Amino acid sequence: MASYTQEDDDHYRSEFSSSYVVGSFPKDFVYGPDDPDQDITTILSPDQKPKILLMGLRRSGKSSIQKVVFHKMTPNETLFLESTNKIESENISNSSFVQFKILDFPGQIDFFEPSFDSEKIFGGQGALVFVIDAQDDYMEALQRLHQTVLRAHKVNPHLRFEVFIHKVDGLSDDTKIETQRDIHQRANDDLIDAGMEQIHLSFYLTSIYDHSIFEAFSKVVQKLIPQLPTLENLLNIFISNSGIEKAFLFDVLSKIYIATDSSPVDMQSYELCCEMIDVVIDISDIYGKDEGVQVQFDKESSSIIKLNNQTILYLREVSRYLALVCILREDNFDRQGLIDYNFLCFRNAIQEVTPSASITSTPPSTTTHFLLTFDASLILLLTSFCTLTEEPEKSLYVAYGCV
């Protein structure tokens, strides 16, 4: 049985880890430009990507949400946005897991009129996000929400419904709770009265002035990722064998976390990780080399931030737009080589479960089994799963080290 010594630790540290690498993230972090001349037929044409439909009354904050989350617009800049007067479509295609189309609908138009094709709008896999202005009288918004949910569910029973109780930054904590309770109660009572109690609505308190909008969108996007249970299991195995308290798998551009381990998400921890990503990108932009459009990906890019409460934030790139951000105690970071080796195993497993270029509209039949065997000096991780093509594959990862 092999043992893990300090010499081995130094070996793995030198071989698998790197200090902070300036220029870790590409500077050309932008989503594809919208085509303002697209007609509605092209926008709503059926494809294999899931759709996120942003709906709500006028001035509820739909466009501001999209610009802040997916275009890095500051909240203050959204004050100058004009009202949306036509459907705006955008393809979000960063990593293999973050693949969807987001549609921003004008609040003043009824898309259930005969002139619109409801099948094209609501058909396929996706989610409907209805935005309610919490600072306004929301009775009309609740009525529109009820009508929209009933009609959309009739067209597509598999559509997910998410309700953003938005602009809560101007409300006190007690008012936030009371507003959410009232909207939740009224919306579900309306569904029960209509005999549609089987429809599930998810509610989120959101604001563009804090990280609540990013966390809410993270929950929405996660429901569109068929591989989510596999990713969560991989993260659970990784943190349990690396002395890590919390880990997030981030889409770096939007700061949406597409997966995390099974422990509860603490909002402060999530905000810390988001701030770390901002710091890495900003420093990379200031001090990084100008590499032009063809930015080369450095698989060893990483960043370490030590806080004054003996906590460490550790970031490692998984792919061009995916990064793993971990929170751990400083004394658990003594054997960084073991953590880095476990990260390599984790990254290889992520590549194994990465979906193919063609995204199916229905969740694949995926089976995941994990066999974890512990010894004083042996970690054995066996993952067996079916890919999107339903071809069974097996990967064996062995890491030596004391747990």
From TrEMBL:
SUPFAM superfamilies: P-loop containing nucleoside triphosphate hydrolases. GO terms for cellular component: cytosol; Gtr1-Gtr2 GTPase complex; lysosomal membrane; nucleoplasm. It holds the Pfam family Gtr1_RagA. Signal peptide: none annotated. It is found in: Cytoplasm; Lysosome membrane; Nucleus. It comes from Penaeus vannamei. Keywords: Cytoplasm, GTP-binding, Hydrolase, Lysosome, Membrane, Nucleotide-binding, Nucleus. It catalyses: GTP + H2O = GDP + phosphate + H(+). One of its GO terms (biological process) is positive regulation of TORC1 signaling. This is Ras-related GTP-binding protein C. The lineage of its organism: Eukaryota, Metazoa, Ecdysozoa, Arthropoda, Crustacea.
